[in-house]
Write a structure and sequence with these properties.
The protein is of the alpha/beta class. It is built from five helices and nine strands.
């Protein structure tokens, strides 16, 4: 079906007609029982329906084989230090940090999270830090963060997490604060 619009005359110029092709199959109403389906199948009942492949590998998408966050634990006397290098983001990286710190908190009362190697962090990473602080408080443990770069420090400032976490400029400063806490407790 075609529709022709009128000629338009502006001054001495005459413009050609504009032809618009209208596809009629978009305008045919469907029966009410054929319009709504409870699942996302094709409406043509004669076409073949394929089984959905299992997993994302069937689509040619490959999951990253390893985390973009490496975690290393070291103890310095009775203080456990967790060194983070990479990014703390949604999914595997944030979950790996929580698992490791959760295990460490079962064995120590003093923990320093070294953020000097962290290059990026998203909202999940910020949430994990708040969660870890809550876990430490629940176990009467001291949890301190050390060495965040300018980007991470700004993120902690913007989210006001710096008012909840004890943040130090370096691991040495955090270790010194534990010594000061011990001297004050002996007074």
């Amino acid at each position: 079906m075609y529709r022709v619009t009128k000629f338009v005359r502006l001054g001495m110029f005459r413009f050609a007609a504009i032809v618009v092709k209208i596809y009629s199959f978009f305008m045919m109403p469907k029966l009410s029982h054929a319009r709504l389906f409870s699942n996302m199948q094709t409406m043509n009942t004669e076409c073949q329906i394929w089984e959905q492949p299992l997993g994302v590998a069937a689509f040619g998408l490959h999951k990253e084989p390893k985390l973009k966050l490496s975690l290393e634990t070291r103890n310095h006397g009775d203080v456990m230090i967790v060194h983070c290098h990479g990014r703390i983001v949604y999914r595997d990286e944030a979950a790996a940090l929580s698992r490791l710190v959760g295990e460490v908190l079962q064995h120590t009362r003093k923990l320093i999270l070294d953020l000097s190697g962290v290059s990026s962090m998203d909202s999940a990473g910020i949430g994990e830090l708040a969660l870890l602080q809550g876990w430490a408080q629940g176990r009467n443990a001291s949890f301190k963060c050390a060495g965040p770069n300018a980007f991470i420090r700004n993120l902690l400032d913007l989210t006001k997490l710096d008012s909840v976490l004890e943040i130090h400029s370096s691991v040495d400063n955090a270790l010194e604060s534990f010594r000061e806490d011990q001297v004050c407790a002996d007074c």
